[in-house]
Amino acid sequence: MAARKSSRKESKLFVLDTNVLMHDPTSIFRFEEHDLFLPMMTLEELDNNKKGMTEVARNARQTSRFIEELIAGRELDLHEGVSLEQASKGQAIGSLFLQTEAITSVLPAQLPMGKADNQILGVLHHLQQMQPKRVVILVSKDINMRIKARAMGLAAEDYFNDKVLEDTDLLYTGIREIDLPFWEKNGKDMQSWQEGGKSYWRVKGPDCPDLYVNQMLYQEGEPFAARVISVEGKTATFESLKDYSHGKNAIWGVTARNREQNFALNLLMNPDVDFISLLGQAGTGKTLLTLAASLAQTLESKIYTEIIMTRVTVPVGEDIGFLPGTEEEKMAPWMGALEDNLDVLNQSDAEAGDWGRAATRDLIRSRIKVKSLNFMRGRTFLNKFLIIDEAQNLTPKQMKTLITRAGPGTKVVCLGNISQIDTPYLTEGSSGLTFVVDRFKGWVHGGHVTLQRGERSRLADHAAEVL
User: Which of 199, 269, 277, 429 is least enclosed, having the fewest CB within 10 Å?
Assistant: First the structure.
Protein backbone atom coordinates (compact mmCIF):
# COMPACT_ATOMS: atom_id res chain seq x y z
CA MET A 1 0.00 0.00 0.00
CA ALA A 2 2.92 2.32 0.81
CA ALA A 3 4.40 1.67 -2.63
CA ARG A 4 1.03 2.49 -4.18
CA LYS A 5 0.88 5.79 -2.25
CA SER A 6 4.39 6.82 -3.23
CA SER A 7 3.70 6.05 -6.90
CA ARG A 8 0.51 8.11 -6.68
CA LYS A 9 2.54 11.05 -5.33
CA GLU A 10 4.78 10.87 -8.39
CA SER A 11 1.85 10.65 -10.79
CA LYS A 12 1.57 13.31 -13.48
CA LEU A 13 -1.44 15.41 -14.46
CA PHE A 14 -2.31 15.17 -18.15
CA VAL A 15 -4.52 17.84 -19.73
CA LEU A 16 -6.32 16.30 -22.75
CA ASP A 17 -6.95 18.19 -25.95
CA THR A 18 -10.18 17.41 -27.83
CA ASN A 19 -8.45 15.80 -30.81
CA VAL A 20 -7.02 13.03 -28.59
CA LEU A 21 -10.51 12.05 -27.41
CA MET A 22 -11.91 12.23 -30.95
CA HIS A 23 -9.02 10.10 -32.19
CA ASP A 24 -9.35 7.44 -29.47
CA PRO A 25 -12.36 7.56 -27.08
CA THR A 26 -10.71 4.97 -24.81
CA SER A 27 -7.72 7.28 -24.26
CA ILE A 28 -9.13 8.35 -20.84
CA PHE A 29 -8.45 4.79 -19.62
CA ARG A 30 -4.90 4.57 -21.01
CA PHE A 31 -2.84 6.76 -18.71
CA GLU A 32 -2.23 4.08 -16.03
CA GLU A 33 -1.47 5.68 -12.63
CA HIS A 34 -1.64 9.30 -13.85
CA ASP A 35 -4.48 11.79 -13.41
CA LEU A 36 -6.39 13.45 -16.27
CA PHE A 37 -7.90 16.92 -16.52
CA LEU A 38 -10.57 17.90 -19.07
CA PRO A 39 -10.94 21.65 -19.64
CA MET A 40 -14.47 22.97 -20.27
CA MET A 41 -13.36 23.96 -23.78
CA THR A 42 -12.58 20.32 -24.56
CA LEU A 43 -16.15 19.34 -23.63
CA GLU A 44 -17.45 22.27 -25.69
CA GLU A 45 -15.51 21.12 -28.75
CA LEU A 46 -16.74 17.53 -28.26
CA ASP A 47 -20.27 18.90 -28.34
CA ASN A 48 -19.56 20.85 -31.56
CA ASN A 49 -18.23 17.72 -33.30
CA LYS A 50 -20.87 15.17 -32.26
CA LYS A 51 -23.17 15.54 -35.29
CA GLY A 52 -22.80 13.40 -38.39
CA MET A 53 -21.84 9.85 -39.38
CA THR A 54 -18.09 10.35 -39.69
CA GLU A 55 -15.57 8.42 -37.60
CA VAL A 56 -14.72 11.64 -35.71
CA ALA A 57 -18.40 12.31 -34.83
CA ARG A 58 -18.85 8.71 -33.66
CA ASN A 59 -15.76 8.98 -31.45
CA ALA A 60 -16.97 12.30 -30.00
CA ARG A 61 -20.30 10.71 -29.03
CA GLN A 62 -18.59 7.65 -27.54
CA THR A 63 -16.27 9.87 -25.46
CA SER A 64 -19.28 11.78 -24.10
CA ARG A 65 -20.91 8.47 -23.12
CA PHE A 66 -17.78 7.35 -21.26
CA ILE A 67 -17.55 10.65 -19.36
CA GLU A 68 -21.28 10.56 -18.53
CA GLU A 69 -20.98 7.02 -17.11
CA LEU A 70 -18.01 8.09 -14.99
CA ILE A 71 -19.56 11.18 -13.41
CA ALA A 72 -23.21 10.07 -13.11
CA GLY A 73 -24.31 10.52 -9.46
CA ARG A 74 -21.03 12.19 -8.41
CA GLU A 75 -21.88 15.79 -9.27
CA LEU A 76 -21.29 17.08 -5.70
CA ASP A 77 -17.67 15.93 -5.33
CA LEU A 78 -16.38 16.38 -8.90
CA HIS A 79 -13.67 18.82 -7.75
CA GLU A 80 -12.03 15.88 -5.90
CA GLY A 81 -11.84 13.85 -9.11
CA VAL A 82 -13.49 10.61 -10.24
CA SER A 83 -11.57 7.35 -9.94
CA LEU A 84 -10.96 5.56 -13.24
CA GLU A 85 -10.02 2.22 -11.66
CA GLN A 86 -13.43 0.52 -11.71
CA ALA A 87 -14.48 1.75 -15.18
CA SER A 88 -11.14 0.70 -16.72
CA LYS A 89 -11.14 -2.69 -14.92
CA GLY A 90 -7.87 -1.82 -13.17
CA GLN A 91 -6.05 -0.62 -16.32
CA ALA A 92 -5.99 2.99 -15.03
CA ILE A 93 -5.73 3.84 -11.32
CA GLY A 94 -5.65 7.63 -11.66
CA SER A 95 -8.54 10.08 -11.40
CA LEU A 96 -10.41 12.19 -13.92
CA PHE A 97 -10.87 15.89 -13.08
CA LEU A 98 -13.29 18.17 -14.91
CA GLN A 99 -12.98 21.96 -14.92
CA THR A 100 -15.57 22.96 -12.30
CA GLU A 101 -14.76 26.68 -12.02
CA ALA A 102 -13.86 29.56 -14.29
CA ILE A 103 -10.10 29.87 -14.88
CA THR A 104 -8.73 33.26 -15.82
CA SER A 105 -5.07 32.71 -16.50
CA VAL A 106 -2.90 35.51 -17.82
CA LEU A 107 -1.53 34.48 -21.23
CA PRO A 108 0.84 36.49 -23.45
CA ALA A 109 -0.98 39.35 -25.20
CA GLN A 110 -0.29 37.80 -28.63
CA LEU A 111 -2.62 34.86 -27.82
CA PRO A 112 -6.28 35.93 -28.10
CA MET A 113 -8.34 34.20 -25.37
CA GLY A 114 -11.33 33.76 -27.71
CA LYS A 115 -9.66 30.87 -29.53
CA ALA A 116 -10.41 27.39 -28.18
CA ASP A 117 -6.77 26.23 -28.30
CA ASN A 118 -5.63 29.26 -26.32
CA GLN A 119 -8.28 28.70 -23.65
CA ILE A 120 -6.97 25.15 -23.16
CA LEU A 121 -3.42 26.57 -22.94
CA GLY A 122 -4.75 29.04 -20.32
CA VAL A 123 -6.06 26.10 -18.25
CA LEU A 124 -2.70 24.33 -18.61
CA HIS A 125 -0.86 27.48 -17.48
CA HIS A 126 -3.18 27.90 -14.47
CA LEU A 127 -2.81 24.26 -13.36
CA GLN A 128 0.99 24.50 -13.56
CA GLN A 129 0.89 27.62 -11.34
CA MET A 130 -1.52 26.01 -8.86
CA GLN A 131 0.52 22.77 -8.61
CA PRO A 132 4.14 23.89 -9.14
CA LYS A 133 5.63 20.68 -7.69
CA ARG A 134 3.63 18.43 -10.01
CA VAL A 135 4.35 17.61 -13.66
CA VAL A 136 1.45 18.98 -15.75
CA ILE A 137 1.52 17.96 -19.42
CA LEU A 138 -0.71 18.81 -22.38
CA VAL A 139 -1.54 15.81 -24.61
CA SER A 140 -2.53 16.84 -28.14
CA LYS A 141 -2.43 15.47 -31.68
CA ASP A 142 -2.20 19.07 -32.95
CA ILE A 143 1.46 19.92 -33.72
CA ASN A 144 0.90 23.70 -33.64
CA MET A 145 -0.81 23.45 -30.24
CA ARG A 146 2.22 21.58 -28.88
CA ILE A 147 4.59 24.18 -30.37
CA LYS A 148 2.60 27.03 -28.75
CA ALA A 149 2.61 25.24 -25.36
CA ARG A 150 6.38 24.70 -25.49
CA ALA A 151 6.94 28.32 -26.56
CA MET A 152 5.17 29.32 -23.32
CA GLY A 153 7.46 27.05 -21.31
CA LEU A 154 4.77 24.38 -20.76
CA ALA A 155 5.15 20.63 -21.27
CA ALA A 156 3.35 19.05 -24.25
CA GLU A 157 3.32 15.55 -25.78
CA ASP A 158 1.73 13.69 -28.66
CA TYR A 159 -0.66 10.81 -27.88
CA PHE A 160 1.39 7.66 -28.53
CA ASN A 161 -0.89 4.93 -27.21
CA ASP A 162 -2.44 4.26 -30.64
CA LYS A 163 0.96 3.58 -32.22
CA VAL A 164 1.62 -0.10 -32.80
CA LEU A 165 5.37 0.51 -33.19
CA GLU A 166 7.56 3.47 -32.40
CA ASP A 167 9.82 2.72 -35.37
CA THR A 168 8.35 1.14 -38.51
CA ASP A 169 11.82 -0.19 -39.41
CA LEU A 170 11.13 -2.77 -36.70
CA LEU A 171 7.94 -3.93 -38.45
CA TYR A 172 7.81 -7.67 -39.13
CA THR A 173 8.87 -8.36 -42.75
CA GLY A 174 7.74 -11.99 -42.90
CA ILE A 175 11.16 -12.97 -44.29
CA ARG A 176 14.34 -14.12 -42.57
CA GLU A 177 17.74 -14.97 -43.95
CA ILE A 178 19.24 -18.21 -42.67
CA ASP A 179 23.03 -18.28 -42.61
CA LEU A 180 25.64 -20.94 -41.84
CA PRO A 181 25.88 -20.04 -38.12
CA PHE A 182 22.11 -20.74 -37.84
CA TRP A 183 22.60 -24.28 -39.19
CA GLU A 184 25.62 -24.80 -36.93
CA LYS A 185 23.67 -23.73 -33.82
CA ASN A 186 20.32 -25.34 -34.63
CA GLY A 187 21.02 -28.09 -37.17
CA LYS A 188 22.86 -30.68 -35.06
CA ASP A 189 19.85 -33.01 -34.61
CA MET A 190 18.18 -32.01 -37.87
CA GLN A 191 15.66 -34.39 -39.42
CA SER A 192 14.68 -34.12 -43.07
CA TRP A 193 12.14 -36.04 -45.13
CA GLN A 194 10.02 -35.79 -48.25
CA GLU A 195 6.24 -36.06 -48.41
CA GLY A 196 3.75 -35.24 -51.15
CA GLY A 197 6.41 -33.77 -53.45
CA LYS A 198 7.71 -31.37 -50.77
CA SER A 199 10.79 -31.44 -48.56
CA TYR A 200 10.60 -30.97 -44.79
CA TRP A 201 13.22 -30.11 -42.17
CA ARG A 202 12.91 -30.26 -38.38
CA VAL A 203 15.57 -28.31 -36.50
CA LYS A 204 16.21 -27.80 -32.80
CA GLY A 205 18.14 -25.01 -31.14
CA PRO A 206 18.25 -21.64 -29.36
CA ASP A 207 17.19 -19.58 -32.43
CA CYS A 208 13.97 -21.52 -33.09
CA PRO A 209 11.73 -19.66 -30.57
CA ASP A 210 12.51 -16.42 -32.51
CA LEU A 211 10.87 -17.81 -35.66
CA TYR A 212 7.21 -17.21 -36.53
CA VAL A 213 4.79 -19.62 -38.21
CA ASN A 214 4.48 -18.83 -41.96
CA GLN A 215 7.73 -16.84 -41.91
CA MET A 216 9.67 -17.26 -45.16
CA LEU A 217 13.28 -18.42 -44.97
CA TYR A 218 16.07 -18.29 -47.53
CA GLN A 219 19.83 -18.79 -47.69
CA GLU A 220 21.91 -16.47 -49.85
CA GLY A 221 23.78 -18.30 -52.61
CA GLU A 222 21.87 -21.56 -51.96
CA PRO A 223 18.65 -22.84 -53.57
CA PHE A 224 17.10 -23.12 -50.09
CA ALA A 225 13.67 -21.45 -49.71
CA ALA A 226 11.21 -22.62 -47.06
CA ARG A 227 8.25 -21.68 -44.91
CA VAL A 228 8.06 -22.21 -41.15
CA ILE A 229 5.03 -24.45 -40.57
CA SER A 230 5.34 -24.96 -36.81
CA VAL A 231 7.29 -23.66 -33.83
CA GLU A 232 7.10 -25.59 -30.56
CA GLY A 233 9.52 -24.43 -27.90
CA LYS A 234 13.03 -24.89 -29.32
CA THR A 235 11.85 -27.07 -32.23
CA ALA A 236 10.78 -25.68 -35.61
CA THR A 237 9.60 -27.40 -38.80
CA PHE A 238 10.20 -25.98 -42.30
CA GLU A 239 8.47 -26.85 -45.57
CA SER A 240 10.00 -26.28 -49.00
CA LEU A 241 8.35 -23.71 -51.31
CA LYS A 242 7.00 -24.12 -54.81
CA ASP A 243 9.10 -22.25 -57.39
CA TYR A 244 6.73 -19.78 -59.05
CA SER A 245 9.59 -18.12 -60.94
CA HIS A 246 9.59 -21.08 -63.35
CA GLY A 247 7.32 -20.81 -66.41
CA LYS A 248 5.69 -24.19 -65.78
CA ASN A 249 4.28 -22.90 -62.46
CA ALA A 250 2.99 -19.60 -63.90
CA ILE A 251 -0.18 -18.29 -62.26
CA TRP A 252 -2.54 -16.88 -64.91
CA GLY A 253 0.52 -16.23 -67.08
CA VAL A 254 2.41 -14.45 -64.27
CA THR A 255 5.73 -15.71 -62.89
CA ALA A 256 7.63 -14.40 -59.86
CA ARG A 257 10.44 -12.05 -60.89
CA ASN A 258 12.28 -12.07 -57.57
CA ARG A 259 12.53 -13.94 -54.27
CA GLU A 260 9.89 -11.88 -52.41
CA GLN A 261 7.35 -12.27 -55.21
CA ASN A 262 7.88 -16.03 -55.05
CA PHE A 263 7.24 -15.93 -51.27
CA ALA A 264 4.08 -13.85 -51.84
CA LEU A 265 2.71 -16.28 -54.46
CA ASN A 266 3.35 -19.24 -52.14
CA LEU A 267 1.16 -17.58 -49.50
CA LEU A 268 -1.49 -16.39 -51.98
CA MET A 269 -1.88 -19.88 -53.49
CA ASN A 270 -1.94 -21.64 -50.10
CA PRO A 271 -5.57 -22.54 -49.19
CA ASP A 272 -4.66 -22.83 -45.48
CA VAL A 273 -3.64 -19.17 -45.24
CA ASP A 274 -6.78 -17.08 -44.69
CA PHE A 275 -5.18 -13.68 -44.14
CA ILE A 276 -2.26 -12.20 -46.09
CA SER A 277 -0.73 -8.73 -45.93
CA LEU A 278 1.66 -7.53 -48.66
CA LEU A 279 3.68 -4.39 -48.09
CA GLY A 280 5.86 -2.73 -50.68
CA GLN A 281 6.74 0.38 -52.63
CA ALA A 282 4.94 1.25 -55.86
CA GLY A 283 5.72 -1.22 -58.64
CA THR A 284 6.71 -4.21 -56.50
CA GLY A 285 3.83 -6.26 -57.96
CA LYS A 286 1.44 -6.45 -54.99
CA THR A 287 -1.79 -5.94 -56.97
CA LEU A 288 -0.72 -7.94 -60.03
CA LEU A 289 0.32 -11.03 -58.02
CA THR A 290 -2.84 -10.88 -55.89
CA LEU A 291 -5.14 -10.55 -58.91
CA ALA A 292 -3.37 -13.35 -60.77
CA ALA A 293 -3.68 -15.66 -57.73
CA SER A 294 -7.33 -14.67 -57.17
CA LEU A 295 -8.28 -15.31 -60.82
CA ALA A 296 -6.51 -18.67 -60.86
CA GLN A 297 -8.31 -19.79 -57.67
CA THR A 298 -11.71 -18.35 -58.71
CA LEU A 299 -11.92 -19.25 -62.41
CA GLU A 300 -9.59 -22.27 -62.69
CA SER A 301 -9.62 -24.20 -59.39
CA LYS A 302 -12.97 -22.66 -58.27
CA ILE A 303 -11.96 -22.46 -54.58
CA TYR A 304 -13.64 -19.05 -54.34
CA THR A 305 -16.87 -17.95 -55.98
CA GLU A 306 -16.06 -14.27 -56.47
CA ILE A 307 -13.34 -11.64 -56.13
CA ILE A 308 -14.29 -8.54 -54.13
CA MET A 309 -11.99 -5.54 -54.37
CA THR A 310 -12.27 -2.46 -52.20
CA ARG A 311 -10.13 0.51 -51.27
CA VAL A 312 -10.30 3.74 -49.28
CA THR A 313 -11.45 6.62 -51.47
CA VAL A 314 -8.90 9.20 -50.37
CA PRO A 315 -7.92 11.58 -53.21
CA VAL A 316 -4.24 12.53 -53.49
CA GLY A 317 -5.08 16.00 -54.83
CA GLU A 318 -8.34 17.95 -54.72
CA ASP A 319 -11.55 15.90 -54.59
CA ILE A 320 -13.45 15.68 -57.91
CA GLY A 321 -16.85 16.07 -56.22
CA PHE A 322 -20.07 14.13 -56.65
CA LEU A 323 -20.00 11.18 -59.06
CA PRO A 324 -23.20 9.92 -60.71
CA GLY A 325 -24.03 6.26 -61.24
CA THR A 326 -24.20 2.96 -59.34
CA GLU A 327 -21.81 1.89 -56.58
CA GLU A 328 -19.55 0.15 -59.16
CA GLU A 329 -19.55 3.21 -61.46
CA LYS A 330 -18.78 5.59 -58.58
CA MET A 331 -15.82 3.39 -57.57
CA ALA A 332 -14.49 3.15 -61.15
CA PRO A 333 -12.22 6.28 -60.97
CA TRP A 334 -10.52 4.79 -57.89
CA MET A 335 -9.94 1.47 -59.59
CA GLY A 336 -7.46 2.51 -62.26
CA ALA A 337 -4.92 0.11 -60.70
CA LEU A 338 -7.36 -2.77 -61.16
CA GLU A 339 -7.93 -1.91 -64.84
CA ASP A 340 -4.17 -1.61 -65.53
CA ASN A 341 -3.43 -4.99 -63.97
CA LEU A 342 -6.33 -6.71 -65.72
CA ASP A 343 -4.97 -5.46 -69.06
CA VAL A 344 -1.59 -7.08 -68.24
CA LEU A 345 -3.23 -10.35 -67.16
CA ASN A 346 -5.41 -10.39 -70.27
CA GLN A 347 -2.51 -9.96 -72.70
CA SER A 348 -0.71 -13.04 -71.39
CA ASP A 349 -2.91 -15.33 -73.51
CA ALA A 350 -1.32 -14.66 -76.91
CA GLU A 351 -2.95 -17.60 -78.74
CA ALA A 352 -6.54 -16.60 -77.87
CA GLY A 353 -6.83 -13.82 -80.48
CA ASP A 354 -8.95 -10.69 -80.12
CA TRP A 355 -12.28 -12.54 -79.76
CA GLY A 356 -10.90 -14.92 -77.16
CA ARG A 357 -9.37 -12.06 -75.16
CA ALA A 358 -12.61 -10.07 -75.27
CA ALA A 359 -14.54 -13.12 -73.99
CA THR A 360 -11.96 -13.65 -71.21
CA ARG A 361 -12.17 -9.97 -70.23
CA ASP A 362 -15.97 -10.20 -69.93
CA LEU A 363 -15.70 -13.38 -67.87
CA ILE A 364 -13.15 -11.78 -65.53
CA ARG A 365 -15.25 -8.62 -65.13
CA SER A 366 -18.30 -10.73 -64.19
CA ARG A 367 -16.33 -12.34 -61.34
CA ILE A 368 -14.70 -9.18 -59.92
CA LYS A 369 -16.94 -6.95 -57.82
CA VAL A 370 -15.76 -3.50 -56.83
CA LYS A 371 -17.29 -2.44 -53.50
CA SER A 372 -17.19 0.73 -51.44
CA LEU A 373 -16.03 0.52 -47.81
CA ASN A 374 -19.06 2.57 -46.75
CA PHE A 375 -21.43 -0.36 -47.29
CA MET A 376 -19.42 -3.12 -45.59
CA ARG A 377 -21.02 -3.10 -42.12
CA GLY A 378 -23.25 -6.07 -41.40
CA ARG A 379 -22.14 -8.09 -44.43
CA THR A 380 -20.68 -11.59 -44.38
CA PHE A 381 -18.59 -12.87 -47.28
CA LEU A 382 -18.75 -16.62 -47.95
CA ASN A 383 -16.08 -18.28 -50.14
CA LYS A 384 -14.92 -14.92 -51.47
CA PHE A 385 -11.43 -13.61 -52.26
CA LEU A 386 -11.45 -10.16 -50.60
CA ILE A 387 -8.72 -7.72 -51.71
CA ILE A 388 -8.27 -4.53 -49.65
CA ASP A 389 -6.12 -2.19 -51.73
CA GLU A 390 -4.35 0.93 -50.34
CA ALA A 391 -4.90 -0.53 -46.85
CA GLN A 392 -2.39 1.91 -45.30
CA ASN A 393 -5.15 4.59 -45.36
CA LEU A 394 -7.40 2.57 -43.01
CA THR A 395 -7.53 3.07 -39.25
CA PRO A 396 -7.14 -0.04 -37.03
CA LYS A 397 -10.89 0.15 -36.27
CA GLN A 398 -11.84 0.25 -39.97
CA MET A 399 -9.46 -2.65 -40.62
CA LYS A 400 -11.15 -4.69 -37.89
CA THR A 401 -14.58 -3.88 -39.39
CA LEU A 402 -13.45 -5.18 -42.79
CA ILE A 403 -11.57 -8.32 -41.73
CA THR A 404 -14.40 -9.44 -39.42
CA ARG A 405 -16.69 -9.55 -42.51
CA ALA A 406 -14.95 -12.78 -43.57
CA GLY A 407 -17.16 -15.85 -43.37
CA PRO A 408 -16.17 -19.52 -43.90
CA GLY A 409 -13.91 -20.13 -46.91
CA THR A 410 -12.98 -16.48 -47.44
CA LYS A 411 -9.40 -15.27 -47.95
CA VAL A 412 -8.55 -11.63 -47.11
CA VAL A 413 -5.53 -9.93 -48.70
CA CYS A 414 -4.40 -6.45 -47.58
CA LEU A 415 -2.13 -4.51 -49.93
CA GLY A 416 -0.40 -1.23 -49.19
CA ASN A 417 2.64 0.96 -48.81
CA ILE A 418 2.93 2.59 -45.37
CA SER A 419 5.18 5.35 -46.71
CA GLN A 420 2.28 6.58 -48.92
CA ILE A 421 -0.41 7.49 -46.38
CA ASP A 422 -2.95 10.01 -47.73
CA THR A 423 -5.28 10.17 -44.69
CA PRO A 424 -4.43 13.31 -42.68
CA TYR A 425 -4.72 11.77 -39.19
CA LEU A 426 -2.77 8.55 -39.75
CA THR A 427 0.97 7.98 -39.46
CA GLU A 428 3.11 4.97 -40.34
CA GLY A 429 2.99 3.86 -36.71
CA SER A 430 -0.80 4.14 -36.27
CA SER A 431 -1.98 2.90 -39.69
CA GLY A 432 -4.39 -0.05 -39.73
CA LEU A 433 -2.00 -1.90 -42.05
CA THR A 434 0.88 -1.65 -39.53
CA PHE A 435 -1.59 -2.78 -36.87
CA VAL A 436 -2.65 -6.00 -38.67
CA VAL A 437 0.90 -6.90 -39.76
CA ASP A 438 2.03 -6.72 -36.13
CA ARG A 439 -1.02 -8.48 -34.63
CA PHE A 440 -1.26 -11.33 -37.16
CA LYS A 441 2.42 -12.34 -37.14
CA GLY A 442 2.89 -15.92 -36.07
CA TRP A 443 -0.78 -16.90 -36.58
CA VAL A 444 -1.04 -20.33 -38.23
CA HIS A 445 -3.48 -19.10 -40.92
CA GLY A 446 -1.92 -15.67 -41.52
CA GLY A 447 1.07 -14.63 -43.59
CA HIS A 448 2.99 -11.47 -44.45
CA VAL A 449 5.65 -10.51 -46.99
CA THR A 450 7.35 -7.16 -47.45
CA LEU A 451 8.24 -6.80 -51.16
CA GLN A 452 11.49 -4.92 -51.73
CA ARG A 453 12.29 -4.67 -55.44
CA GLY A 454 10.30 -2.66 -57.93
CA GLU A 455 9.60 -4.55 -61.17
CA ARG A 456 7.86 -1.83 -63.21
CA SER A 457 10.63 -0.42 -65.39
CA ARG A 458 14.14 1.00 -65.18
CA LEU A 459 12.58 4.49 -65.31
CA ALA A 460 10.28 3.82 -62.30
CA ASP A 461 13.13 2.21 -60.32
CA HIS A 462 15.44 5.15 -60.97
CA ALA A 463 12.67 7.66 -60.09
CA ALA A 464 11.98 5.82 -56.79
CA GLU A 465 15.68 6.12 -55.90
CA VAL A 466 16.49 9.70 -56.90
CA LEU A 467 13.22 11.64 -56.50
Answer: 199
